[in-house]
Amino acid sequence: MARNDGIDRTFARNQDLPTLDDVAKVQEHNEREKDSYSNQDIDTTQTYRNIHFKAPTGSYAAMFDQMIADGVISTRGLKADAVKYGELIFDVNSAY
């Protein structure tokens, strides 16, 4: 991640999202749907550079439900307390 301090950074984040509210919050953050951010490193003028390997066609939760309906994924056999949603993000600085 570029912070213009001469140090190039890369990070990966893997996070469980236990509730639909958590999924909605992550969507707002990732898709830059929020009005303001407490993280000073977020530069919304650079959002156009974000890459989606599968671009969202609706809300994250709606896409999950559609994948179940289409038979792409199955939740059959999951325990009632299983975490169904997760997020894996890689931020790779272009300097690499």
Structural class: alpha+beta
Give the DSSP E fraction (strand runs of 2 or more residues): 15-25%
Tell me the series of helices and strands, N- to C-terminal.
Answer: EHHE
Q: Can you count the beta strands?
A: 2
* Total tally of structural domains: 1
Largest sheet data: 2 strands, antiparallel
- Rg from Cα: 16 Å
Can you tell me the overall shape?
A: elongated
Q: In DSSP terms, counting alpha (H) and pi (I) runs of 4 or more, how many helices?
A: 2
Poorly predicted regions:
none
Helix content: 10-25%
Distance between the termini: 10 Å
Structure, described:
The protein is 22% helix and 17% strand. It is an alpha+beta fold. The protein has one domain (10-92). The radius of gyration is 16 Å and the shape is elongated. The model has no long low-confidence stretch (mean pLDDT 85).
